Amino acid sequence: MWSRHASRACTIRGVIDDDPYLWLEDVEGEAALAWVAERNAETAAALAAGAGFAPLKERLREVLDASDRIPYPTRRGAFLYNFWRDAGHVRGVWRRTTPEQYRKDAPEWEVVLDVDALAAAEGEKWVWAGARVRHPAYDRALVCLSRDGGDAVVVREFDLGTRTFVEDGFRVAEAKTRIGWIDADTVFVGTDLGPGSMTDSGYPRTVRRWRRGTAPEDAPLVFEGRAGDVSAGGWHDNTPGFERDFVVRSMDFYHSEMYLLASDDSLVRIDVPDDASAYAHREHLIVTLKSDWLGQRAGSLLAFGFDAFLAGERTAEVLFTPDERTALAGHTWTRHHLILETMRDVSTRIEVLTPNPGGGWSRKPLADVPALSAVSVVDTDPDVSDEYFLDVSGFLQPSTLHHGHIGAGSEILKQAPDRFDTAGLAAEQFFATSQDGTQVPYFVIGPDRSAAGAGPGPALLYGYGGFEVSLTPYYGAVTGRAWLEGGGTYVIANIRGGGEYGPTWHRAALGADRSRAFEDFAAVAADLVARGITTPAMLGAAGGSNGGLLMGAMLTRYPQLFGAIVAQVPLLDMLRFHELLAGASWIAEYGDPDNEADRPHLRALSPYHRLSADQVYPPVLLTTSTRDDRVHPGHARKAAARLRELGHAVLLHENTGGGHAGASDNEQTAHNNALIHTFLWQHLTQRALPAAR
Q: Which of 660, 671, 677, 683 is catalytic?
């Protein structure tokens, strides 16, 4: 363990960076945790001691625990399953009901697994991490449980009939495990079985066929990736008449190889570009392109006959072709149809595609979606029926859950109530011009500016800009109560690096071009001021994870544009990220610090290394979690320490649990959000928290 005052040189292939704060990377080291406790106390004194904090936190907790939230369902045979948290179920319950009961305003739920009771009985801070239910019998599940919110999980077999764990069933110790059913007594598993079983990124490197009653380390090896890969995985397709096994090697986030696993365990490569995503569905092979191929544009969705493709046929049915304003958002199967979601200028559209018996596909709209809204398929049962559950929401419109069968119409099944006062609010979309002339869309939700006397006011600008993640319209009840009701304006920037306009929008900010995402965000900030929506002193910025890197860039590159900055579970040290936890898996996004060609741009991008005593920075709040096993808490800790050393205003809040989400229950989520919004109100308005409208 490094001492509190130790200075350690970080050597990267001949380049030495003196980093006096490496000791803060010792996640649970005594000195590091003592330092974190001091910072937490400072933050609590600055933000949580005021009269307005507790009422705000309570109002946010009320939203998160509300009993009239929509319980979104997942069909598993005769039942609809749902995982639910509220004030009486802090860690949550996995429960189920019948379709007939679900239609009622107050369905009768059968509790399948009470995570609170399990945590109390075992003395562990269990957090629900999902379950793999065996199909089509729906009699057993592989339940995944996280210790206090980390990505690593323990796996236990669960009997859905008796609602108990299977005493001699499949069990896997804590690891970033991949596991899935083959049949009643066999699974594919990749987990930590000692040296050579995990990649440098900390994910499974091997795929084994594990039979009940045997030790996992004795299970036959069917596939092995390389240490430098991100991960390897295997799965069984048990669709009647189309039973097949597959394995995949993910070299990085954007390149992979998929193989059909033959009965003799030989591998047949599914010969699509390694930057494409592909999967088999019944007689189809579905391919999403990330680069041009077979005369089709990047971002297209293609369908092939699976058997014909393996035989060498390369004639594709084109299900979607992007243009400059439209991108693929997702797609979901029902028994006989494909539901296609697309985005046009970041607003969602949805339609149904149907394969015709004689060839080709027909299409028609599924539902009308209001402007500046989002629609998503919640659930289908593709092996059985053409049933679907569809969620529609907007910035100022709570979710509406539709239920229907394709070809037979739909109905509104559930409607969430308003969670915040929307009187006098409006949602708009604008475009800012970035440094290279690119038009960058952004959404503005706040006071209706058409009202007489409207002037600049406090605004919060949110962004992400990485990993092809799209920021689409949604109803944010927490933001509504904590920010919009007080007169604040909330802004979402759809900057490059995301997926709002498909693969090219993402690739435009990869590696050495990451600064384009920063330029886009800064352009939106400047445009907000130019339109009279806010001023630099009243403009805050927030982002998490990769968005935390974005916040670090705003702090060190564009401090004059902002009055306060919040970086949640941030990535900030770009010369050591690959050495910390899952960081090696992000090299394809940012570059490799061990590569001499990449090191200069990574140093230039690294907020931790750009911090200076000579610059004037806006106040900063950094949040992280001791249990975050994805983005190391050392990023936030070291940046806070460096800012303090240089004499700048910084607060750090580190939750002891919560994982990469930063919170593992509604209490922690409400607390974190109350801290963030209290900080923003203090620094962007120099006044107390506003009263609710």
A: 660
Question: DSSP class of residue 198?
Answer: B
Tell me, yes or no, whether 367 and 461 share the same domain.
Answer: no
Give yes or no: residues 436 and 399 share one domain.
no
Considering the domain architecture, whether residues 435 and 567 belong to the same structural domain is answered as yes
Q: Give the C-alpha distances (Å, rounded to integers) separating 2 from 32, 195, 548, 560.
A: 9, 26, 26, 36
Residues in the chain: 693
Query: Where among 394, 418, 442 does a domain terminate?
Result: 418
- 660 catalytic, yes or no? yes
Q: Does the annotation count 385 as an active-site position?
A: no
Q: Is the pTM of this model over 0.85?
A: yes
In angstroms, the Cα distances linking 143 to 90, 208, 448, 508, 668 are 18, 19, 47, 39, 24
Q: Spot the catalytic one: 545, 585, 625, 664.
A: 545
CATH number of the domain where residue 631 is located = 3.40.50.1820
Total tally of structural domains belonging to the chain: 2
> 461 and 591, same structural domain?
yes
Instruction: Mark whether 591 and 487 lie in a shared domain.
Output: yes
Is the CB of residue 154 less than 8 Å from the CB of residue 129? Answer: no
Per-residue pLDDT tens digits for 503-530: 999 999 999 999 999 999 999 999 999 9
Q: Is 185 exposed, middle or buried (0-12, 13-18, 19+ CB in 10 A)?
A: exposed
Tell me the pLDDT tens digit for each residue of 529-585. 999 999 999 999 999 999 999 999 999 999 999 999 999 999 999 999 999 999 999
Report yes or no: 84 and 93 within 8 Å, Cβ to Cβ.
yes
Structural domain of 350: 327-418
